[in-house]
Amino acid sequence: MIDSKIYGEYVTAWCPGCGNHDVLLALKDALARQNLEPHQFALVSGIGQAAKIVHYVRGNGFNGLHGRALPPAQALKLVHPELKVVVESGDGCTYGEGGNHLLAAIRRNLDITLIVHNNQIYGLTKGQSSPTTMTGHVTKNNPLGVFDQPFNPVAVAVAMRASFVARSFSGLKEHAAATIAAAMEHKGFSLVDMHSPCVSFNKVNTFAWYKSRCKEVSHDPANWDEAMKAAMVFGDEIPIGVIYREQRPSKETLLPQCRDGAMYRRPVDMDKVAEHMMSYA
Amino acid sequence: MREELHLILGGEAGQGLDTVAGLLGKAVVRSGRHLLTVQHVMSRVRGGHNNFRMRLASRPVQGPPDTFDLLAAMSRESVDLHRERLADGAVVLVDGGWDMPPGPGLIGIPFAELASRPVFRNVALMGVLGAMLGIEADILRELVADNFRAKGDQIVASNLDVLAASMQWAAANTPSLPLPGEGDSVTRLAMDGNQALVLGALAAGVRFCGYYPMSPATSIAEGLAQVAVDMGVVVEQGEDEIAAANMALGAAFGGARSIVPTSGGGFALMTEAVSLAGVMEMPVVFVVAQRPGPATGLATRTEQADLELVLRAGHGEFHRAILAPASVEDCFHLTHKAFDLAEKFQGPVFILSDQYLASAVRSVEPFDLGALPPVAGPDLSDADPDGYRRYDWSAPVSPRRIPGHGKSLVLADCHEHDEQGHIIEAADIRVRMQDKRLAKLDVLRAEILPPVSTGEAEPDLLLVGWGSSGEVLREVAGILQERGVRAASLCFTQVWPLAPETFLQRLHAAECVVAVEGNSTGQFARLLREATGFHIANSVLRYDGRALTAGYVLERLAPILEAL
Question: What's the Cα-to-Cα distance from B210 to each of A180, A255, B32, rounded to whole Å?
């Protein structure tokens, strides 16, 4: 196993006690467990506190726009299949601004891993409700409490038969690292909904709140009905672990043009261009 | 003998007129003649009224035709709609089964006899037209056989029987309208702008296309998809245009030459990604095939009204190049050039086309693939990987390496960043990095395409246009010269950045300058004034969704010419 020091140490912009510090450690731990050297992977993110993680890991990185982490990550995997691609961003970026991209990414099933730092609040913009903020939660922008129903990413992903769906909690370091590693080792699209408390703007879903509720699932993750049942549970109990897993070929293995490795190495075949041109004669 | 022959095929959507126009066009080109086929289609899959206007000649043709020598009407409506456009002595082909009073030139084709089933009507029409034009039977037979080959021998044989019977009927019952001239033996292609654009992209080594379907750009993605496996291209339909554009940036990050075809409405959603390409210094080629707006506008028609959108799209300040092909040949060469330019200056390059150019089929000689200049690529050296900085500011253009190629680590960032690509907020780094990016303008300036000019240097009338209006400008200038007017034309195939030293003198030297554009406010004339201070006082504008034609321009130039 590689020493995780290889991934560097950076001064972060995160608050002391923020769950993101633990997710960062878990990610480095998971990378090390897979013996991935910095040049062998790329981290792709959007915008938000979580998305800054790209700047705190020594490796290749693409820090894109808010909500738009998944589209470049998928294209990167398609044109450069040997690269390990990990997407990290928050609940606002992934489940709000980028919601449509999440649905499409589940359907495409490329061999990439999506880790969502889910703190159920907007941190970077200082405390507005997010798609996963619970009903009744009073936030700066919802003084009467949130009326909208929270988005359940795990249930949506299982319903769509995403090929790997897991939930973890940043406060459980070994669980978080092992879950990320399992997601990355899975061949296909993997979602890790990683609860990670925001110590500054979410006084409801705190470290203690999560810790007392997280419970490892015991069902067979290959059983969709059982997975769906577990996916619908969130509140007094929060099921963690691998909720659903299904093995099917990932898209880049199905496309013949992606099978010869990174596409930038492929020279232009002018004879074929000429042949195509003359089909118009 | 006629120098040119103009045909118009009209009917409902779903009748397959596009197939007839396509096959007949190919037959004309294989007969050694020049061709332009302009499609006018409605935004519907069935019904309505579509038409295909064909200009056939023994010499190269320029803009779309205004009057017609033959109308083939597959719907009753078509006869009334196009009556005004018919030349004296024109032939009108209709369905012989229609209850119509006889009229001059009116000929009923007995489709009921020639085509035992409605699906054969297209081939019957092709047989009649082919025979009237005097096209060799072998050329027609080969095209019909190729077209139906995938459907099996039986279908091919039935269609060939219909073709033969229809040609035989036409020989006895229709006047001859022979193809102009003798025809030569030069091999030519029948190709539309989007097909040439696809070919240019393939020749440049395109490896990724991100798109969301939108007329008139969709056929670019579809054209690439048809050859994707064979040529090694990933063509991915995004869940929306935002995804398509951001995907292209991700693919470019991975080293793939990337293209994003769209139209104005789709491009509006991509503007955030354009800005991202600016700050990330990512080479991406955007194709904006214009159609009339605002909003959904006229979905299947043409316009040149998105110049200002493309010029300003994206928040913040960064450079871009905008190429505006005037012809099918330009679609090929400028697309090839766009990939080179995008990599050389590391940023977004645009091809600003339009529905007319995208879909009009022209006869062109095969492109000289061997003479194409090389296309710039990323830095694949991996020298001193620990010292590598993606945004090294010792020169305006930094070495662009590819993640996973060697040990160099590559970081692309949407924030203002330092040389490594890490987020910064320091004022001095911000200024230095912005200055570095802006200094890349010199790379673009070194390769600006000068406008194409015809006519004398000090004309009485100078017509100025850009993009697809170029061929009409040249045609109008030529017609006026024949009438004794000292007319000239100036057509821009690159509309940004501009190099005034290559054209400003010509503007000043002309007695009268007229801007000719396919929009309602004269966007390019405004841009020229912004860039040079030169005010073009006269304009001929078209914004009814139809392509500029010589007739349209000449009619509106008349009062200006009178005042000269």
Answer: 29, 15, 38
